[in-house]
């Protein structure tokens, strides 16, 4: 029993740590539910932030290795936050999840260090596929 | 280039509305009518989410919906907490999504703010100094009627 518990804890520790950054509580909860439902088995949610400033603070606390990042947020937007997070941890994987679907914005996010883009409104499948692909990428 | 909002460009928002309900709810939404609102009398329901537009444009885009429709939309998002806080969050997020999606057509110079969400009619609607009357798109989903209003004009002459 103790051994099983230890194995489970070890497996949890090995999962990628996901931080969700979005100014909408509904979207943050929805992304967390997709993860909790086992749709993205390689990750566990370690933190949720309402804006870029909060994300930077939480990053030092949890050291996430995967982040979903909204772009239009108060305090600090997702582009500036992405740039800062990549400076803190160049290996962090950032998936932008935003309604801003013009090519110039997507390109700017990628240039600042994001690795993928999911456009709002998204389905659970689209989010899960994008995160799974991001984690499986070499 | 004339950057005023034309009826043709309203279709950009109509498409964003259709896309939203298909993606989130897996159901089609009925676009009932699109009309120019009467001066000083914008359409408003229980909750309104408003996005200010700047950059090469100025004005606002707002989404207004009845409480019951927002509750159904919360369920479509898998959200079981239907408190006022979440209804306001949702109406703002929907307005943000419609406006953000419109950038596929208008480009990044269609700069949008974070949402302002209120119960009823936002006072700030009176302070948007735009000469155009709002273009209102009336929608029906699950027998509930809501509206998206677009009151945006180009910021550059000609």
Notes on the structure:
The complex is a heterodimer of chains A (138) and B (158). By secondary structure, chain A is of the alpha/beta class. Chain A is 51% helix and 20% strand. Chain A is built from 6 helices and 5 strands. Chain A has a 5-stranded parallel beta sheet with strand order 2-1-3-4-5, sandwiched between helices. In chain A, α3 runs parallel beside α4. The longest helix of chain A has 13 residues. The mean pLDDT of chain A is 92. The longest helix of chain B is centred in the first third of the chain and has 19 residues. With 158 residues, chain B is α+β, with helices and mostly antiparallel strands. In chain B, strands 1, 2, 3, 4, 5, 6 and 7 form a 7-stranded antiparallel beta sheet that branches. Chain B is 32% helix and 32% strand. In chain B, α1 packs across α3 and α2 crosses α3. Chain B is built from 4 helices and 7 strands.
Please give the largest β-sheet of chain A. Answer: 5 strands, parallel
Major β-sheet profile of chain B? 7 strands, antiparallel
Work out the helix count of chain A. Answer: 6
- Globally, the shape of chain B reads globular
**In sequence order, what are the helices and strands of chain A, one letter per element?**
HEHEHEHEHEH
Strand content of chain A: 15-25%
Helix content of chain A: 40-55%
Overall strand count of chain B: 7
Residues in helix, % of chain B: 25-40%
Distance between the termini of chain A: 36 Å
- The coarse overall form of chain A would be globular
Largest interface: A-B, 23 and 28 residues
Question: Which residue ranges of chain B are poorly predicted, with pLDDT under 50 across at least 5 consecutive positions?
Answer: none
What Rg of chain A do the Cα atoms give? 15 Å
Please count the beta strands of chain A (DSSP E, at least 2 residues each): 5
* DSSP strand content of chain B: 25-35%
**SSE ordering of chain B:** HEEEHHHEEEE
Supply the number of helical segments of chain B: 4
How far the N terminus sits from the C terminus of chain B, by CA atoms, comes to 6 Å
- What assembly state would you assign to the polypeptide chains in this entry? heterodimer
